[in-house]
Write a structure and sequence with these properties.
alpha+beta; five-stranded antiparallel β-sheet; two-stranded antiparallel ribbon; 14 helices
């Protein structure tokens, strides 16, 4: 087995030790903003030979045949026929993705603020991602009982677009704060990791594997608590010993078994937790390289390198979470209970944590819903598209758009009155 040397991969180091790391971080941030599909398409076009051990990286996502009308099951417990885009004042763009935008919106009737995720049906169908969107909607419906998962108020659709009406969280992405501060002190990293682990443990208890943990999908609320969002890559119905095999995730955080295209289980989330903890402590993911092929080779073959400026407990949990053999990884035997009981979390009272009785180590100090200081200006400077607040004229809807509408039967959702009692 060939091991890449430190000389070949000079990026695994603390941010304060090296000149020019600012440029590296900038390149890293631009690269990770790419969606996985776009990244794969670009990678497949690169004209350089890959080492033999990287032949696994012919990264073609499995195609999902479009369901026939008989397979388009209405998944909704109830519909939401009265909701419409014109119910909202759309104020600012606060996020962007492959299929649409997230907007800050104020409801016209009650003046409440929401984050409304608006997705283009045609874009989803073009990439055959409708199953992931419906999975995201299903997972959101199950999140109402956990304090560190974003909540869905309701969802609705027009002939052209899907709308998720979500909790508005304005403390900023963890990615945004890491970008500004480069890394966190260990107590702060421990607090965030504990809240993230609690959210992952809850999802696992519902037989859901998250599969896309990264700082961009971790938000801070107005008090500084973690809120996990974006459930598009979640896999439902994975029993404690069950596995799945779809190649998906974000390049910097892919576990070795995913790269090997082997069946993987819920321990893939614990690998990602280790990668995020490492990034919080050191400023970069554990096996990062600007050269993607080299980064994948590092993930598969390079031993974990830990600098001496963290505690022994932190080193031990990183070694456990970032174990390349998933059967030896921390969390493989007893899932979240193993994580909770690790010595790294000995300062954490887990009951107080889930009750939000522990004071967060950082307060975003937002003044109210209109305080957007923790959102990237790349988003907030973008004009709000006028189309997001409009319903298309039914007389002008084409046959292809009507066909697209049928692919999302059951997307609309309104909670029962019991959920408010």
């Amino acid at each position: 087995m060939t091991i890449a040397t430190e000389r070949e991969s000079p990026v695994l180091m603390t941010y304060s030790k090296t000149r020019g790391l600012g440029a590296l971080l900038t390149a890293f941030m631009k690269q990770r903003r790419m969606g996985l599909n776009d990244f794969i398409q670009r990678l497949s076009c690169l004209a350089f030979p890959l080492p033999t051990r990287l032949q696994i990286l012919v990264l073609t996502l499995p195609s999902h045949p479009q369901p026939s009308p008989s397979q388009q099951i209405n998944l909704g417990p109830s519909s939401n026929p009265t909701a419409k885009p014109s119910d909202f004042h759309f104020l600012k763009v606060i996020g962007k993705g492959s299929f649409g935008k997230v907007l800050l919106a104020r409801h016209r009737n009650d003046d409440q603020f929401y984050a409304v995720k608006v997705l283009q049906k045609k874009a989803i169908l073009k990439k055959k991602e409708e199953k992931h969107i419906m999975s995201e909607r299903n997972v959101l419906l199950k999140n109402i009982k956990h304090p560190f998962l974003v909540g869905l108020h309701y969802s609705f659709q027009t002939a052209e677009k899907l709308y998720f009406v979500l909790d508005y969280i304005n403390g900023g992405e963890l990615f945004y704060h890491l970008q500004r501060e480069r890394c966190f002190l260990e107590p702060r990293a421990r607090f965030y990791t504990a809240e993230i682990a609690s959210a992952l443990g809850y999802l696992h208890s519902l037989n859901i594997v998250y599969r896309d943990l990264k700082p961009e999908n971790i938000l801070l609320d107005s008090q500084g608590h973690i809120i996990l969002t974006d459930f598009g890559l979640c896999k439902e119905n994975i029993e404690p010993n069950g596995t799945t095999s779809t190649f998906c995730g974000t390049p910097e955080y892919l576990a070795p078994e995913v790269l090997h295209k082997q069946p993987y289980d819920r321990t893939v989330d614990w690998w990602c937790l280790g990668a995020v903890l490492y990034e919080m402590l050191y400023g970069l993911p554990p096996f990062y390289s600007r050269n993607t092929a080299e980064m994948y080779d590092n993930i598969l073959n390079k031993p974990l390198q830990l600098k001496p400026n963290i505690s022994n407990a932190a080193k031990h949990i990183l070694e456990g979470l970032l174990q390349k053999d998933r059967t030896q990884r921390l969390g493989h035997t007893d899932d979240f209970e193993e994580i909770k009981n690790h010595v790294f979390f000995s300062p954490i009272n887990w009951d107080d944590l889930t009750a939000k009785k522990l004071t967060p180590p950082f307060n975003p100090n937002v003044t109210g819903p209109n305080d957007l200081r923790h959102f990237d200006p790349e988003f907030t400077d973008e004009p709000v598209p006028s189309s997001v607040g409009c319903s298309p004229d039914s007389s002008l809807i084409s046959a292809s758009i009507k066909e697209a509408a049928e692919a999302f039967l059951g997307f609309s959702y309104a909670p029962s009155m019991d959920s408010y009692l």
